[in-house]
Design a protein that fits this description.
Elements: H1 40-55, H2 62-85, H3 90-107, H4 117-122, H5 126-131, H6 138-151, H7 161-176, H8 179-189, H9 195-214, H10 218-225, H11 228-237, H12 243-257, H13 260-268, H14 271-280, H15 290-306, H16 310-318, H17 321-331, H18 336-347, H19 351-359, H20 362-370, H21 383-403, H22 407-415, H23 419-451, H24 458-485, H25 489-501, H26 506-518, H27 526-542
Helix pairs in contact: 1-3, 2-3, 3-6, 6-9, 8-9, 9-12, 11-12, 11-14, 12-15, 14-15, 15-18, 17-18, 18-21, 19-21, 20-21, 21-24, 23-24, 23-25, 24-26, 24-27, 26-27
Length: about 550
């Protein structure tokens, strides 16, 4: 998933905010709301002030920091007093607003000296800065969002523990002072039809991503404490594409990828159906740009993350997600491989999805991909793309065998390996040999490294082999095990013939299955591990 920062905003009207801004941290102005209307002369003064600030070069040290914070606090106090004194006369507090704007921009210079972040926190400036996110003038709130983005930019910090400490101090202080709640509340009142506010939406999402990068726990905190997930789901539902919709899809994927709690939370918010609706827009058309293509990939990343919890697999099946993925595959557009990936996630350890797949005639589409009949375009011609597709379709077929154990569906699945003179067994053995050769090459390389006195424990060696293709080879062996245990004489004879042609025996397959058996983890609990090992042991005994 890409995290590149594009600032190409489009002026499109997207009124997707489902509720009004909730001001829980009211700016001290007597509760009255009134946006400043700055006249032309004030705008000219502002532009002149900004130009002067850009030309100013100042050494950033503790003395400078104290000077900046003191000035900021004074301008903030002046603005509060002016607004309280002249609540219905914008002209009387406009100058103080411009001064406050200038000082917020001056504080961004601190991004060049992150070692001063702890001092910024100690000067108690964070609460004052964050409270401005609730300022009646959204322009001031936008200034704060930009400042937070600058201060939390990952490029500011060096890649070592000592340099990361100031960042953690700052982020901890921001979180303790309700930055997440205030950012999202402000986000809900921003209007995408205004170019400046559209840019502020992007900056808000960037800040959230920056906070998660420094403090991963923020990913769950922001979903627990705010309505960000609701906002993100609302954004990806909009049909029109823009840079903020793309970024919303990326942030949603980041929040989902390592959090089972967030995956379940989004599932309970009807998020599976929302993401399916979003990807359905591309079932018969391709994205028009690279940015839009990236957004579609983000959406499928979200879908695959959502399909980790069992309850979301059930929601996927009920929402006819299996049927949609098959339609996308049949249309042979750019989302083809992503649909296979989503089906693989949906059917892993979930028999109802496997049964639905067979019932809606998905076998023909799946085995066309298995036989290498995939749509051809610039992206698909890449060797790594085709390898990933092979690995996904092998995993999908292994899931089908694991989820459909008996009955007419099982017979329909097995019959695919008999038709056309067992061509699919031929293909299976072709993949078996290719991945077997890759694993052997990697094993020899690792053994050579050990001879060169490079220490490597067995677990690391095994993981290296998995990365080189061992996992796919193991799945192929499992599929062979299912076919062998069906006791179909024609298919057994074909497997034995192909093994013999490659100067191999049943023992070679058994060895792969045994290694798989011995390394099955207990992530799903000891009982599930025992069941999985018993199934593999059955194949080993049969061979």
């Amino acid at each position: 998933m890409s995290t590149k920062r594009r600032r190409d905003y489009y002026d499109e009207d997207d009124n997707n905010n489902d509720e009004e801004y909730e001001n829980d941290a009211v700016f001290a102005n007597g509760g009255k709301s009134q946006k400043v209307e700055v006249d032309l002369s004030l705008l000219e003064a502002l532009e002149k002030s900004q130009s002067q600030n850009k030309n100013a070069v100042e050494v950033v040290d503790l003395k400078t920091l104290k000077k900046l914070v003191l000035s900021f606090e004074r301008k903030l106090k002046d603005n509060i007093e002016a607004r309280l004194k002249y609540p219905n006369q914008p002209d009387r507090f406009a100058d103080s607003e411009i001064d406050l704007h200038d000082d917020l921009h001056k504080l961004s210079i601190l991004a060049g000296a992150p070692e001063l972040y702890p001092d910024l926190v100690n000067l108690n400036a964070i609460p004052s800065i964050l409270n401005l996110l609730a300022h009646d003038n959204t322009d001031i709130a936008v200034d704060v969002v930009q400042l937070l983005q600058d201060l939390t930019d990952p490029d500011v910090f060096e890649d070592d523990e000592e340099s990361d400490e100031p960042a953690r101090v700052l982020v901890d202080a921001l979180v303790e002072n309700n930055v997440l709640e205030l950012l999202v509340q402000n986000l809900q009142r921003l209007n995408d039809s205004d170019p400046d506010e559209m840019a502020a939406v992007y900056s808000t999402l960037t800040t959230v991503e920056n906070l998660v990068e420094v403090k991963p726990a923020v990913a769950e905190m922001v979903c627990e404490r705010t309505k960000l997930l609701k906002w993100l789901l609302g954004k990806i539902k909009v049909r029109e594409f823009d840079s903020n919709k793309q970024y919303a899809s990326e942030i949603l994927a980041i929040l989902l990828q390592n959090s089972a709690a967030n995956q379940r939370r989004v599932g309970q918010m009807n998020g599976v159906d929302v993401v399916l609706q979003a990807v359905a827009m591309y079932k018969s058309k391709d994205p028009k740009s690279l940015d839009e293509e990236e957004m579609v990939e983000n959406l499928f990343d979200c879908l695959c993350c959502l399909l980790m919890p069992l309850e979301n697999k059930e929601r996927f099946v009920k929402a006819e997600g299996v049927e949609l993925m098959i339609i996308i595959m049949k249309q042979k557009k750019s989302a083809y491989s992503s649909a296979i990936r989503a089906l693989d996630f949906a059917m892993t350890k979930y028999p109802p999805a496997c049964e639905r797949f067979v019932d809606v005639l998905g076998l023909k589409t799946a085995f066309a991909a298995f036989m290498g009949k995939i749509p051809v375009n610039k992206k698909n011609k890449k060797e790594r793309y085709q390898e990933e597709l092979e690995e996904r379709i092998v995993s999908l077929i292994a899931s089908l065998f694991g989820g459909i154990l008996r009955g007419s569906r099982r017979e329909r699945l097995l019959s695919k390996f008999v038709e056309n003179e067992c061509e699919k067994i031929d293909r299976l053995m072709e993949l078996y040999m290719r991945y077997s050769d890759r694993v052997k090459t990697e094993t020899e390389r690792l053994n050579h490294l050990e001879l060169d006195d490079l220490e490597m424990d067995e677990e690391e060696k095994y993981n290296r082999k998995l990365e080189s293709g061992l996992y796919t080879l193991q799945l192929i062996a499992v599929i062979l095990g299912h076919i062998w245990c069906s006791e179909h004489p024609h298919m057994r004879a074909r497997i034995e013939l192909l093994l013999k042609q490659q100067k191999l025996t049943n023992k070679d397959v058994k060895d792969i299955l045994q290694e798989y058996h011995d390394n099955i983890g207990d992530l799903d609990g000891p009982e599930e591990k025992e069941r999985a090992q018993a199934k593999i042991q059955k194949f080993i005994s049969a061979f």
